[in-house]
Design brief:
heterodimer, A: 115 residues, mainly beta, 7-stranded mixed sheet, 4-stranded antiparallel sheet, 52% strand, globular, B: 118 residues, 6-stranded mixed sheet, 51% strand
């Protein structure tokens, strides 16, 4: 099992460029999440999904879009990159056992710099 | 909205000693989970321990234990017999379990950097 895989691990973008951060999990988890972690801070929720075709906004969704066409994949798209989006991005997934959401499994993160 | 506060930006401990990291939270809910996550320099997010709010007994995992004070909304992490490998950023986090609408979303504190001296 690979768990939660994020690509790329590191990327530099120019202001105004767009890109997609990839996230895939092979654990058949229904719940998936995107967080961002600014330097010296805790993680903040950008978007989440409770299953294929269902997504919703988290605390800091502005400037991002997501889609969930399959259980495995949950890509995060930046349309017009801004310096404020320089951050480390984490994808996570959770299983549901006996109706209870279990602790999240995290990917290793993508460090994104926008210059 | 729920908030999580970690008032200690940095803590240090001698190897083999005990250290306690503090966390307070604010919520109007009665059913929730609390977590401690460890983030080493590799930036992996590693679950250390989880506490269910409806359980009065404090959670323990080997050298890690919590002091959960529900009325005071306090959730501290005690690390016993500290090891060099415990050096990391530690995050306290909250997740609602109320009404089937929480979806496991986590709210994190700002983190505490723990240094372990040999």
């Amino acid at each position: 099992n690979a768990g939660v895989t994020q690509t790329p691990k590191f990327r530099i973008l120019k202001i105004g460029q767009s890109m997609t951060l990839q996230c895939t999990q092979d654990m058949n988890h229904n719940y998936m999440y995107w967080y961002r972690q600014d330097p010296g801070m805790g993680l903040k929720l950008i978007y989440y999904s409770v299953g294929a075709g269902i997504t919703d906004k988290g605390e800091v969704p502005n400037g991002y879009n997501v889609s969930r066409s399959t259980t495995e994949d949950f890509p995060l798209r930046l349309e017009l990159a801004a310096p404020s989006q320089t951050s480390v991005y984490f994808c996570a997934s959770s299983p549901v056992v006996a109706g209870l959401i279990q602790p999240q499994h995290f990917g290793d993160g993508t460090r994104l710099s926008i210059l | 909205a729920q908030t999580v506060t970690q008032s200690q930006p940095e803590m240090s401990v001698q190897e083999a000693e005990t250290v306690t990291l503090s966390c307070t939270y604010d919520t109007s809910e009665s059913d929730y989970y609390l977590f401690w996550y460890k983030q080493p320099p590799s930036r992996q997010m590693i679950l250390v321990i989880r506490q269910e709010a409806y359980k009065q007994q404090n959670a323990t995992e080997n050298r890690f234990s919590v002091n959960f004070q529900k009325a005071a909304k306090s959730f501290s992490l005690k690390i016993s017999d500290s090891q060099l490998g415990d050096a990391a950023m530690y995050f306290c986090a909250y997740s609602s379990n109320a009404g089937g609408t929480s979806y496991g979303k986590l709210t994190f504190g700002q983190g505490t950097i723990l240094t372990v001296h040999p």
